[in-house]
């Protein structure tokens, strides 16, 4: 399933408008629109924000989603993309571990999950 379709489906199941989702996820409405239309690919931090706003786990949001939907386009030949994606994911994870705002989001999500 495409990440854009999954986000739209989950948003509709929650009875949210695109503006509601943007506000809840603390992402601009124009950026949320780009993600939902498949024009822009969501970054790691945005995925966590969207998951929290949609009241689902990060894993539920991203399960069975093609890696191409999650990584920024890189213009690399198909045979080289797996290595590039792996490196990009590792770099993104290192960056996220150093991001205080991201760490706060993870803690908020963990608290929300533990209360369920």
List the defining traits of the structure above.
434 Repressor (Amino-terminal Domain); 116 residues; mainly alpha; 70% helix
Describe this structure in words.
The protein has 116 residues and is mainly α. The protein has a single domain (3-114), classed as lambda repressor-like DNA-binding domains (434 Repressor (Amino-terminal Domain), Orthogonal Bundle). The protein has eight helices and no strands. The two termini are 27 Å apart.
CATH topology, by name, is 434 Repressor (Amino-terminal Domain)
Oligomer: single chain
The CATH superfamily turns out to be lambda repressor-like DNA-binding domains
Q: Helix- and strand-based class? A: mainly alpha
**Termini Cα gap:** 27 Å
Series of H and E elements: HHHHHHHH
- Quickly name the level 1 CATH class: Mainly Alpha
Report the C-alpha radius of gyration, rounded.
Answer: 14 Å
Please summarize the sheet with the most strands.
Answer: none
Number of domains: 1
Which percent bin holds the helix content? Answer: 55-70%
Weakly predicted, low-confidence segments: 73-85
General form: globular
Report the count of strand segments. 0
